[in-house]
């Protein structure tokens, strides 16, 4: 098996040289285990948090051990009761070409007619995050005006389309002209979040003079400050991510206008997908699966080729060079 490790916890934006490609002979399968040849690896912004050496809602990555992450592959050997050779599964043994795991740690693919890698994106963890954040955390109503940051990304692009199809007025932020054009082609008013808070505020007052009822937060920084300014009384903010902060070596000042949470009586709720989606997985697949399968929900992928590209694919998330879900395809 070939896999990536890190030997120290980086400060700031990681260098490519942080990631070491190692090789290891896998031991014989134990009772209950499966060996999986990975075909697709997922890289995700939250992985930066696991490189910080600090336990948050999840343990940090162990140093000099295979990194972990979402992956999809085919069972090539099995000593598990129900999993057999040829089965396609998703699991957390990513950042490597061959994974060996207990069969209880892998999941078979739901029966939905989509390309398999969709189960790492729009019908996987990021998709569940979008759906749970909007419906369960923000309790979205069709009369809401919704603002979504990083709206063309894996999570954001599903959140934006779900909100639009519910009948909401949707504003999405994205970092490039191409991404904003994609949003506008899907009925979403687009703004740029790579600007000062003042500039974002004025962009928001133009596209949403009626104010914002729900803010689906993915980026933090000036975007959050501008969103607070635009929120209506009793608005809800679902805090999904704050990617602009993940590479900060030292914490920067929070939004200057945070007291608006009080004066506007806002509800601001951070959430982690698996805690909210637990017990709702079938509802998610039933609601979103058909929309993806018949093309009513569109999703995009940026695909890097080959295990060696995994660190570059991961780092590209922080440059915004991905359109939709960032994936690595293995041969
Ligand atoms: P995306 O596909 O959205 O990729 C990340 C995007 O973030 C980039 O394409 C870029 O878009 C934007 N970005 C990168 N750096 C910055 C920056 N400094 N300031 C502003 N924007 C930046 O990733 P995901 O859809 O996988 O994740 C989106 C968010 O959701 C992340 O914050 C992630 O941590 C969070 N998340 C949270 C989960 C939870 O359970 N709470 C689960 C899954 C994801 P652009 O070019 O538009 O700037």
From TrEMBL:
Question: Enoyl reductase (ER) domain location, by residue?
Answer: 12-328
InterPro entries assigned to the protein according to its UniProt record, in alphabetical order = ADH-like_C (IPR013149), ADH_N_2 (IPR041694), ER (IPR020843), GroES-like_sf (IPR011032), MDR_fam (IPR045010), NAD(P)-bd_dom_sf (IPR036291)
Question: Membrane-spanning regions, if any?
Answer: none
Q: Which UniProt keywords apply?
A: Oxidoreductase
Per its UniProt record, what Pfam families does this chain match? ADH_N_2, ADH_zinc_N
Keyword Chloroplast found? no
Q: Which domain of life is it from?
A: Bacteria
Q: Which SMART domains match?
A: PKS_ER
Q: Which GO MF terms are attached to this record?
A: oxidoreductase activity, acting on the CH-CH group of donors, NAD or NADP as acceptor
**Which CDD domains does this one have?**
PGDH
User: Which SUPFAM superfamilies does UniProt cross-reference here?
Assistant: GroES-like, NAD(P)-binding Rossmann-fold domains
Q: Does the keyword Methyltransferase apply?
A: no
How is this protein named in the record?
A: NADP-dependent oxidoreductase
């Amino acid at each position: 098996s070939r896999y990536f490790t890190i030997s120290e916890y980086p400060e700031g934006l990681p260098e490519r040289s942080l990631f070491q490609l190692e090789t290891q002979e896998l031991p014989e399968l134990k009772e209950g285990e499966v060996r999986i040849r990975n075909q697709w690896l997922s890289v995700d912004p939250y992985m930066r948090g696991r490189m910080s050496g600090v336990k948050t809602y999840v343990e940090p990555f162990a140093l000099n051990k295979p990194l972990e992450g979402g992956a999809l592959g085919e069972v090539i050997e099995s000593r598990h009761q129900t999993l057999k050779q040829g089965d396609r599964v998703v699991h957390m043994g990513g950042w490597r070409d061959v994974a060996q795991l207990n069969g209880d740690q892998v999941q078979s693919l739901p029966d939905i007619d989509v390309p398999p890698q969709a189960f790492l994106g729009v019908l996987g963890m990021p998709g569940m995050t979008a759906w749970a954040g909007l419906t369960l955390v923000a309790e979205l109503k069709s009369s809401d005006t919704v603002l979504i940051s990083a709206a063309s990304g894996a999570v954001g692009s599903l959140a934006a389309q779900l909100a639009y199809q519910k009948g909401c007025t949707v504003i999405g932020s994205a970092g490039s002209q191409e991404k904003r054009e994609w949003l506008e082609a899907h009925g979403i008013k687009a703004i740029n979040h790579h600007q000062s808070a003042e500039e974002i505020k004025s962009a928001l007052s133009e596209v949403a003079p009626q104010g914002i009822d729900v803010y689906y937060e993915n980026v933090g920084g000036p975007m959050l400050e501008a969103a607070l300014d635009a929120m209506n009384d009793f608005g809800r903010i679902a805090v999904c991510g704050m990617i602009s902060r993940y590479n900060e070596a030292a914490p920067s000042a929070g939004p200057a206008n945070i007291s608006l949470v009080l004066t506007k009586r806002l509800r601001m709720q951070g959430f982690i997908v698996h805690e909210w989606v637990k017990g709702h997985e079938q509802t998610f697949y039933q609601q979103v699966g058909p929309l993806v399968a018949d093309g009513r929900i569109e999703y995009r992928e940026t695909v890097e080729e080959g295990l060696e590209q995994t660190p570059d694919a991961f780092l590209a998330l922080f440059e915004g060079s991905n359109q939709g879900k960032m994936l690595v395809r293995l041969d």
